[in-house]
User: What shape does this take?
Amino acid sequence: MIPVKTPAEIAIMRQVCRGAALVLQYIESLVRPGVSTLEIDEAARDYMAKLGVESACYGYKVGRLPRFPSYTCISVNEEVVHGIPSRKRIIRQGDVVSLDVVVRDSGFFGDNARTILVEPVSNEVRALCQTGEEALYLGIAQARAGNRVHDISHAIERHVRFGNYGIVDQYVGHGIGREMHEDPQVPNQGAAGTGALLRPGMTIAIEPMINLGTGAVTVLSDRWTAVTKDSKPSVHYEHTVLITDGEAEILTIAV
Ligand code: MF3
Ligand code: CO
Assistant: This one.
């Protein structure tokens, strides 16, 4: 069952997602050589407290996994998603830093992610990022009432395959609202015209994760951090959007 939000719920989602976007925008500005990913995470924690929102990552429990120990996910280079910030992970020139921020407030969730490049980086990494971001917006362009979920997936897949990059299929986008992960799943590949029908009032997180090499990933012994099997870099772009009768409304905007 895919929840359809009421106008009152949508108003709250707008506020919560704006908070998630503000946190992401803030920590993005902190990414520079010499800073540890733990310092960035602590800054996110303090900024969330200032905004009066909670981290949805901190203490997050799924299945038999240990609780997620940090306020944000910071995934560097070959790390794809769910990277655990660490004092030992110092940002260096050339790093590809994916920041993923999920907040909870007033009983609702907002989720967004973006990859930051620490210059100088190679042109091939720059092109990977560009394709990842374009894939997100091409997916969002298909997120409209009357379309089906895999129309989004297909648009993302087409663009990523055109660039000959690897698509991560172990992790997917998702409905979001009163839970961080609601129906439907929003894969980053699929057949157009299939999947659940999109209706106005649905809120979903679209999040292509794409790799310079293989799409295959493996999870480190910390049970959370997903890394590419070939150790090549990965990028991640995500917005929470509202399905309307026309174009989707991007909710994770810091205005
Ligand atoms: N955006 C990630 C997701 O949708 C965040 C997960 S929360 C964490 O899966 F606990 F894993 F950090
Ligand atoms: Co997400």
